[in-house]
Specification:
Radius of gyration: 23 Å
GO molecular function, one term: DNA binding
Distance between the termini: 46 Å
Shape: elongated
Strand content: under 5%
Mean pLDDT: 85
Number of helices: 6
Domain HTH iclR-type: 83-107
GO biological process, one term: regulation of DNA-templated transcription
Pfam families: HTH_IclR
Protein name: HTH iclR-type domain-containing protein
Order of helices and strands: HHHHHH
């Protein structure tokens, strides 16, 4: 069951008047090892008490987790082909992404390695 499904069930038990401890016991008996942790249940119940109505994760601002897009792969490939002796750090600085992101694209997506 996914997080959204867990939230539906947690809210159902919360509306029935069960405490987080009792909700955890119910979910453990039903879902076994795939049940959410007690901390997750306690946090969800607290949010429902405060009036949360959405089951979706809230939008978070900030940097995206993955920079491995088709456009970024093309940009890195073009930089490497145009100027071979570039360092990973230089490419990262030019494109504004992490060195590990550049290294992952070079090795996994473009199949390149240091010679």
């Amino acid at each position: 069951m996914e997080k959204i499904g867990h939230r539906y069930v947690i809210q159902y038990f919360y509306l029935k008047g069960l405490s987080p401890t009792n909700i955890k016991a119910e979910l453990d008996s039903t879902l076994g090892g795939s049940a959410p942790s007690f901390t997750t249940i306690k946090y969800s119940v607290a949010e429902f008490k405060q009036g949360r109505t959405s089951y979706q994760n809230e939008h978070r601002s900030g940097r995206p987790n993955d920079v491995t897009t088709r456009g970024m792969v093309k940009k890195i490939h073009k930089r490497v082909v145009d100027d071979r002796p570039l360092k990973v750090r230089e490419i990262a600085d030019m494109l504004g992404i992490s060195k590990s992101g550049v290294h992952r694209i070079l090795t996994e997506n473009l199949g390149m390695k240091k010679l």
